[in-house]
Amino acid sequence: MPRRDAAGIDAGGTLVKIAYIKDGVARLRKFRSDRLEEAAAWIGTELPEAPLCLTGGKGAKLAALIGRNTKMMPEFEATCSGVRLLLPPEIAGRAFLLANVGTGTSVHVIDGGRQIRVGGTGLGGGTIVGLSRLLTGIDDYDAIVAAASAGDRGVADLKVRHIYEGMEPPIDGELTASNFGRVPPGAAIGDGRNGTVAREDALASVIGMVGEAVATLCVSAAAAHGLKTIVYIGSSFNGNAPLRRAIESYTCFRGGEPHFVENGEFSGALGALLRLGRRAARV
């Protein structure tokens, strides 16, 4: 085994993220968290002797399945350490708010070598999947996002322009006055005809609601600490353009400066890898 082989593993509520170095090359890998045995078997085959550092809520369970000595690292510390490796110097070098939008959302202030958790919410990717499942019966995340991308939030959501119909509203008419506030009495999910709400429109409103709530929390938390820069990471953004648009537009409207990080969902795994003294220069 080359001495440089090592892996940082973030076993979260939805995904197991692995940042590893093998034969001197930095790589990334993901597994579903409901398939921990599959992740453990892969680690045993691909990295049989590599030192491992685990973090995340399912880290201890995965470590038991791996069945060899591993290091453990607190989740928040790993994430805040790893995200700096993915940020451009002009952002990493100043204080900023970090929002990790995974199954739920955790919010931190990072200032130099100091990080403090300042809040969070149960809203996140898990909310999107759960509500979408209840409303439409769709289980697959990619299918949910694809359907939502074809939807119109203005069908189920009450916009400011709907309230001020025929008048000039005092604020942006496209702002949401009430999430799902335009759903008529007796309405059900259907094809959008005969008083039903199309599933695409309902799913667009689910994602928009989560995005606006997360952005509102983050902008308020940033302002409370004298910050404007908000860095958004997390697996919920994977292929989810509607969520990113909702968060980006609402963050900007509220005076924040949003930044989205490529491979940001691997921040915890990269931080765990860094704890082993390994730095993935390129991923």
Protein described:
Strand 13 (229-233), helix 10 and strand 14 form a beta-alpha-beta unit. The longest helix is centred in the last third of the chain and has 26 residues, at 199-224. Helix 1 (36-46) crosses helix 2, helix 5 (125-136) runs antiparallel to helix 9 (199-224) and helix 9 crosses helix 10. This protein has a five-stranded mixed sheet with strand order 3-2-1-4-5. The protein has a five-stranded mixed sheet with strand order 8-7-6-13-14, sandwiched between helices. Strands 9-10 form a two-stranded antiparallel sheet. It has 283 residues and is an alpha/beta fold. It is built from eleven helices and 14 strands. The chain has two domains: 6-76 and 267-275, ATPase, nucleotide binding domain (Nucleotidyltransferase, domain 5, 2-Layer Sandwich); 89-155 and 196-261, Nucleotidyltransferase, domain 5 (2-Layer Sandwich), CATH 3.30.420.40.
Rg (C-alpha, Å): 21 Å
In CATH terms, what is the fold-level topology of the largest domain?
Answer: Nucleotidyltransferase, domain 5
CATH class bucket of the largest domain: Alpha Beta
Number of helices: 11
> Uncertain runs with pLDDT below 50, 5 residues or more?
none
- Tell me the β content: 15-25%
The CATH superfamily label of the largest domain reads ATPase, nucleotide binding domain
The domain tally reads 2
Helicity level, as a percent range? 25-40%
> What strand order characterises the main sheet?
3-2-1-4-5
Shape: globular
